[in-house]
Design goal:
The complex is a heterodimer of chains A (347) and B (369). By secondary structure, chain A is mainly alpha-helical. Chain A contains 16 helices and one strand. In chain A, α1 crosses α2 and α8 runs antiparallel to α9. The longest helix of chain A has 21 residues. The N and C termini of chain A lie far apart (88 Å). With 369 residues, chain B is mostly helical. Chain B is 50% helix and 4% strand. Chain B contains 15 helices and seven strands. The N and C termini of chain B lie far apart (82 Å). The chains are: A mainly alpha (347), B mainly alpha (369). At the A-B interface, β1, α1, α3, α5 and α7 of A face α2, β1, α3, α4 and α11 of B. β1 of chain A pairs parallel with β1 of chain B. Chain A: It is an enzyme of class 2 (transferase). Chain A: This is Protein farnesyltransferase/geranylgeranyltransferase type-1 subunit alpha.
């Protein structure tokens, strides 16, 4: 007899679960969409096979190694199926599986699919069970190196830092990211997150203002930096910070932007809103005039928001304008006779 | 001559291809290829995008309403005979768990079968869009299922087994309570606290406290408060003005979701609708918004994509239409900005709720004379 064929390597062929004798005891459960399925996804035989057996395991709530192995197959086909992940977690606990190995597994999956909610939630659960965040900051940094604004990654990072009090090196991490890309809004947000939970903004205020102005000089058209500056000053009032207005007016000469102008407007508005009793009416009207000039400038410079800036000017004037009839009207006063939205539709 | 031709080309480039979009949604409702596998557990949301999209296009006549209604009801997780699963009731995203098809109760006990808050929300919306009267919805069970999902901090899980929790599911919960006209499904005060806690230093809303502000979560925050009728109670005038500013700064051509990120068609709705709810959408630039949305229109297969020269998908197709509807595109129905269904469907909701109130009224009159 010719038996040479027995020594030849045969490449492994995927054997359907329904053809595997170790699974013969289980009756596969097909998906049942009834007589008129809607948004039906046309699965291949392989896909249906795996999930028919997944459904069978689920029905019996089977707790076994073969069930655990099948969840890996199911995840590979659809990592967004939250029921598979939940069942896998049940099995991880019921079978006392090696959680360190699970960390390696979930690391690999997140690297492949970093914008999936289920995989990050799973990682969080495993970290909690292990009560060990030691790999997290480095792992998240790696994910962020591929996409520095991945919302899931930042969320997980904030959770880890807050839960396990890992604040120490985070400000440095943020600064490095801002060095790489000063327009990374997620990094600016993280900066605020770190400082508000550590030193707070009272002693740090001057340093933070300096930092913002420095970054603005490097990249003037950066909304994130201006939002941060406004955000940290806002609780105390923009007009409360001595000398700030002057610094910004100086910047206006060389590093102007719509964000700078909007910031000035907000400073003036804050001054009008929070003016002390002894501020003269004349002083108020001067501030109002400056604010309205800024609105006009913004309507010219930030044309996409022209109608909004004019609206802001009108609102401010209505609120703080004097009753003096000799006041010069705003260029677009009174209100246009045709409502703005109609104008836009007609064009 | 050449100039006339290129002007004609430009017109072609920016015209709205209604019929293609109708066909796009029709195809979506039929069969999708296997590469859409990741949408399995959220198929009900896809139905919602297609149905509401057809409604916005005033083209619901192309589908068989009754077929759709039956299929949606088959996704309801109903209480079992002994009601042990009450806190797991609601709607599933699809049949992926393997429960045999059924549109009636009692529910089947299964160790892993439970509703998903976003599916209950889109399931109810879809039924209402189709003109259903929700008479086969077990409202009390849905509300019990909803209560079970709310955490101490006011946010919601998606499923009773646990999941991530954030502001998206507060919006789903608020929509469910609004449609069922029953706020016993949630602790409004706690939800408001979570929403307020999600307000960022830059005056947009993040997914939760400390997180980066984002157009989608800002919509969830503001729309939820509007549905609850608590917008001006929860946020001061000053805060509202600041939120208006954050939102309006998102317009670059179309709208972006976060500062310094690229514009994306879906934000024409998320941010646009928020601005509409805050009464300042009229001050945005409609032309630039329209041009951007239409630049993401797929002229061959219909639908819209997030960016130009990208593949369309049901979510962007639907939200692109809603974005156009907000700016008054002729031939599109108006959209209710908080509930994210057409005004027509919204009127149906209101009429339905009136009949519920009338029948409750007449019952109590009968009891107490």
């Amino acid at each position: 007899q010719d038996t040479t064929f027995l020594s030849q390597e045969i490449p492994p062929v995927f054997l359907c679960f329904r053809d595997r004798k170790e699974w013969a005891d289980l009756e596969p459960v097909p998906q049942d969409d009834g007589p008129n399925p809607v948004v039906k996804i046309a699965y291949s035989e392989k896909f249906s096979d795996v999930y028919d057996y997944f459904r069978a395991l689920l029905k019996n709530d089977e707790r076994s190694e073969r069930a655990f192995a099948l969840t890996s197959e199911a995840i590979e086909l659809n990592a967004a199926n939250y029921t598979v992940w939940h069942y896998r977690r049940v099995l991880l606990q019921a079978l006392s599986k090696d959680l360190r190995e699970e960390m390696r597994y979930i690391t690999a999956i997140i690297e492949e699919q970093p914008k999936n909610y289920q995989v990050w939630h799973h990682r969080r659960m495993v970290v909690e069970w292990l009560n060990d965040p030691s790999e997290e900051l480095e792992f998240i940094a790696d994910i962020l190196s591929q996409d520095a604004k991945n919302y899931h990654a930042w969320q997980h990072r904030q959770w880890v830092i807050q839960e396990y009090k890992l604040w120490d090196d985070e400000l440095d991490f943020v600064e490095n990211l801002l060095e790489e890309d000063v327009r990374n809004n997620s990094a600016w947000n993280q900066r605020h997150f770190v400082i508000s939970h550590t030193s707070g903004f009272s002693d740090a205020m001057e340093r933070e203002i300096q930092y913002c102005l420095y970054q603005i000089k490097k990249a003037p058209n950066n909304e994130s930096a201006w939002n941060y500056l406004k955000g940290i000053l806002q609780p105390l009032g923009l007009s409360a910070q001595p000398g700030l207005l002057e610094r910004v007016l100086e910047l206006k000469q060389t590093h102007c932007s719509p964000y700078l102008l909007a910031f000035l407007f907000d400073c003036y508005e804050d001054a009008l809103e929070n003016s002390k009793e002894n501020v003269a009416e004349e002083e108020q009207q001067k501030t109002l005039k400056k604010a309205l000039e800024i609105c006009q400038l913004l309507a010219q410079e930030d044309t996409i928001r022209k109608e909004y800036w004019l609206f802001l000017g009108r609102s401010l004037k209505n609120k703080h304008g004097s009753s003096d009839p000799s006041d010069e009207p705003l260029a677009d006063d009174p209100e246009p006779s045709v409502p703005v939205s109609e104008q836009q539709e007609m064009s | 001559m050449a100039e006339e031709e290129s002007q004609f080309e430009e017109f072609e480039q920016i015209d709205f291809l209604r019929d293609r979009h109708v066909r796009f949604f029709q195809r979506t409702l039929q069969v999708l290829p296997e590469r859409y596998a990741s949408l399995e557990t959220t198929r009900l949301t896809i139905i919602f995008f297609a149905l509401s999209g057809l409604d916005v296009l005033d083209a619901l006549d192309v589908i068989d309403r009754n077929t759709m209604i039956e299929w949606i009801y088959s996704l309801q997780v109903l209480p079992t005979e002994d009601q042990v699963n009450l806190s797991r009731c609601g709607f599933r995203g699809s049949s992926h768990i393997g429960i045999p098809y059924s549109t009636k109760g009692p529910g089947v006990l299964h160790p892993y079968d439970s509703g998903h808050v976003a599916m209950t929300y889109t399931g109810l919306c879809s039924l209402l869009i189709l003109g259903d009267d929700l008479s086969r919805v077990n409202k009390q069970a849905c509300l019990a299922g909803l209560r079970a999902l709310q955490l101490e901090d006011g946010s919601f899980y998606a499923v009773p087994e646990g999941s991530e929790n954030d502001i998206r599911f507060i919006y789903c919960a608020a929509s469910i309570c609004y449609m069922l006209d029953d706020w016993s499904g949630m602790d409004i005060q706690k939800a408001i606290e979570y929403i307020r806690g999600s307000l960022s230093y830059d005056n947009g809303f993040g997914q939760g406290a400390g997180r980066e502000s984002h157009g989608g979560w800002t919509y969830c925050a503001i729309a939820s408060l509007c549905l609850m009728g608590r917008l001006e109670e929860a946020l001061s005038q000053r805060e509202l003005d600041r939120i208006r500013r954050w939102c309006i700064m998102r317009q670059q051509s179309g709208f972006q979701g976060r500062p310094n990120k690229p514009v994306d068609t879906c934000y024409s709705f998320w941010v646009g609708a928020t601005l509409e709810l805050l009464d300042v959408f009229q001050y945005t630039n409609f032309d630039k918004n329209r041009s951007f949305i239409l630049s993401t229109q797929d002229r061959l297969v219909g639908g819209f994509a997030k960016w130009p020269d990208s593949h369309p998908d049901p979510l962007h197709a639907y939200l692109g239409l809603c974005g156009l509807s907000l700016i008054g595109e002729p031939s599109l129905r108006k959209v209710h900005p908080a509930l994210n269904i057409t005004q027509r469907a919204f009127q149906h909701v209101q009429q339905l709720q009136q009949t519920w109130r009338d029948s409750t009224g007449s019952c109590s009159r009968h009891l107490w004379g």
